[in-house]
Amino acid sequence: MGIEYFGDKLKTLRKSKKLTQAELAQRLEISKSSVTSYEQGRIYPSLEIFSKICETLNVSSDYLLGVSDELPIKLSTAGLSDEEMKLLLQFLNLIEQNRIYKDE
């Protein structure tokens, strides 16, 4: 995965934080059309705005740039019910098992 997925990652992260494009734009002190353009991959943010995005969405620059696929998940603050948390952990376990199986 690489920079070509920046827009998709940004959109997914924004939605996971339950922010609209307008709300994110306000927090970043930019226009809503800029956020839309970032998410559609038409343009990329300046380094200053990129840094603000990382800070606002609590994500590493490596993740947004496609250098790393690791995304910190704080389950205790994700607003998930106990049942949802259990299902998420089961799903993550299945993915890991599938990777191990494919590598054999």
Short description:
By secondary structure, this protein is mostly helical. Helices cover 62% and strands 0% of the residues.
Describe what this molecule looks like in 3D:
This protein is an all-alpha fold and about 100 residues long. The protein is about 60% helix and about 0% strand. It is built from 6 helices and no strands. α2 (about 20-30) crosses α3. The longest helix is centred in the last third of the chain and has 22 residues, at about 80-104.
Properties at a glance:
104 residues, mainly alpha, 62% helix, globular
Topology:
Elements: H1 6-16, H2 21-28, H3 32-39, H4 47-57, H5 61-65, H6 82-103
Helix pairs in contact: 2-3
Low-confidence stretches: none
Order of helix and strand elements from N to C terminus? HHHHHH
Biggest sheet details: none
Computed over alpha carbons, the radius of gyration is: 16 Å
Q: Estimate percent helicity.
A: 55-70%
Derived from helix and strand composition plus strand pairing, the structural class reads mainly alpha
Number of strands: 0
Count of DSSP H/I helices:
6
Instruction: Please give the alpha-carbon distance between the first and last residues.
Output: 23 Å
Overall mean pLDDT stands at: 81
Strand content: under 5%
**Inertia-based shape:** globular
